[in-house]
Amino acid sequence: QVQLVESGGGLVQPGGSLRLSCAASGSIVSIYTMGWYRQAPGKQRELVARIYTGGSTNYADSVKGRFTISRDNAKNTVYLQMNSLKPEDTAVYYCNADSLAIATPYWGQGTQVTVSS
Hints:
Helix content: under 10%
Number of helices: 0
Radius of gyration: 13 Å
């Protein structure tokens, strides 16, 4: 069973930065599509960024140019660098691992990001 553990969330002022980390229990980050999702109160969970096995990435329009997803295969960890944070980025951020080889994707427990002055 794969476990994903997020860290790095917290309270930051508008315009600030945070880096989220997602540590996987197995050597999956290079062979699974890894993603970051977020869910704000009263809203549906939405995709923030995704990195594919080949290294290509895609981002939600709302975070393009501000967020960067990356991975370290040796550390089995995926990162989300978040810059120029806005209050509307406030949400619980979840790490996701997906593959055609599994029936359902794996999810982490989430980490809270709050952007407020």
